[in-house]
Design a protein that fits this description.
- The chain is mainly beta.
- It folds into 4 domains: about 20-95, Beta Barrel (OB fold (Dihydrolipoamide Acetyltransferase, E2P)), CATH 2.40.50; about 100-175, no CATH class; about 175-250, no CATH class; about 255-320, no CATH class.
- It has helices spanning about 1-20, 170-175, and strands spanning about 25-35, 45-50, 50-55, 75-85, 90-95, 100-110, 115-120, 125-130, 150-155, 160-170, 175-190, 195-200, 205-210, 230-240, 245-250, 255-265, 270-280, 280-290, 305-310, 315-320.
- A 5-stranded antiparallel beta sheet has the order 3-2-1-4-5. The protein has a 5-stranded antiparallel beta sheet with strand order 8-7-6-9-10, with no helix packed on it.
- The relative contact order is 0.10.
- The model is unreliable at about 1-20 and about 330-345 (pLDDT under 50).
Length: about 350
């Protein structure tokens, strides 16, 4: 009986493995040259550029996956979904071609002056785009963060196939380091299309890249709270030239938990300095440690929870150390840990 159970179990696992291998995600992008809608009982078909696909009969996807707002002859779309073993779409939905097209690069074969290249990139599905002969990808160096997430500009050729016209450099791709400054805003000059701006928080002044427009948190508050006289926490990113190219200004917080990047304890005659870090950014946040402040044992690489305020110079300074509420660092009462700046910007 035990042998029979084992055999059955192996068959089930083996069947699931085959099914997982048979189905794969795909994003097919280009102009729709032919389209026959599937019904709950009848297969349909679609031709996107030079590629033809079967749309399997399905009560759900024959309605939502091929809605009349997305799929129709002549429209330029990306059809995202899952293919079965025969290459037919069994789950799918159509939408306009994103510009730029962003995702994790799985394979890149750069073109030369005499041969075409190709790009395989994964977003909601795996997409393959040709790169015509002579296309300039000279700016397609790995981003500073080392991520494979990149963006490319696309066009559609006469046959209806989408192809790469070049790399699209987002603001996030140009950030070499991220940081946070908490303190009082002492000066703020907006950037213009022709001149750089500047922001001074306490004793630190940052140049703002020419042409920068404050957009705020893509997922939340878009109000620019960088107001002279206000106590704030500014989270931003610097370019290789040391200019502020992306930032969000939020209301001042008075406590946080993070990792110690470095620590210079205060002396009887001079203030100290506590530097907090996040992965990839060891010099993320600097806090003055006033003379006479006792933080106990502080080790680089260790966790610490501190409270802070703003001094007369506008800089954030440590007022004390506290223990986070159980069960873990960052629990209730500790305040959120220092996050990395989120960005969905395509600037």
């Amino acid at each position: 009986m035990r042998t029979l159970v084992l055999v059955v179990a192996c068959l089930v696992v083996g069947s699931a493995g085959v099914q997982a291998q048979e189905q794969r995600s795909l994003s097919a992008c280009g102009r729709i040259n032919a389209f026959t809608q599937a019904s709950p009982s009848t297969d349909g078909n679609i031709t996107i550029g030079t590629r033809a696909y079967v749309l399997r009969a399905d009560a759900i996807y024959s309605r939502s996956g091929q809605n009349t707002q997305a799929l129709g002859v002549g429209r330029e779309v990306c059809l995202n979904g899952t293919l079965d073993a025969s290459g037919a779409f069994v789950q799918y939905i159509g939408h306009g071609i994103p510009q730029p097209y962003c995702g994790h690069v799985l394979e890149l074969r750069a073109p030369t002056p005499t041969t075409a290249g190709s790009l395989v990139i994964r977003d909601s599905g795996v997409a393959t785009f040709p790169i015509p002969v002579g296309t300039d990808l000279s700016n397609d160096a790995p981003p500073p963060s080392g991520t494979t997430y990149k963006c490319y500009s696309l066009n559609v050729d006469a046959a209806g196939d989408a192809y790469v016209t070049g790399r699209f450099i987002r603001t996030a791709d140009r950030v070499v380091t991220r940081f946070q400054i908490c303190g009082s805003v002492l000066d703020y000059v907006l950037a213009t299309p022709t001149t750089a701006g500047a922001v001074r928080i306490g004793s630190r002044t940052m140049t703002i890249e020419r042409g920068f427009v404050y957009t705020g948190d893509p997922a939340g508050d878009r109000t620019d709270r960088t107001v002279v006289g206000a106590d704030v926490c500014l989270r931003g990113g610097l370019s290789g030239a040391g200019e502020l190219i992306d930032f969000i200004t939020q209301a001042f917080r008075d406590r946080t938990c993070s990792t110690v990047g470095s620590y210079r304890p205060p002396s009887t005659a001079a203030d100290g300095l506590l530097v907090l870090s996040i992965p990839g950014n060891p010099d993320y946040m600097r806090l003055v440690v006033p003379t006479g402040t006792d933080l106990g044992a502080v080790a680089a690489g260790g966790d610490i929870c501190i409270s802070y305020a703003v001094n007369a110079a506008g800089d954030a300074f440590v007022t004390g150390r506290f223990q986070p509420s159980p069960p873990s660092l960052g629990g209730a009462g500790s305040g959120p840990p220092i996050p990395q700046l989120p960005s969905t910007s395509t600037r």
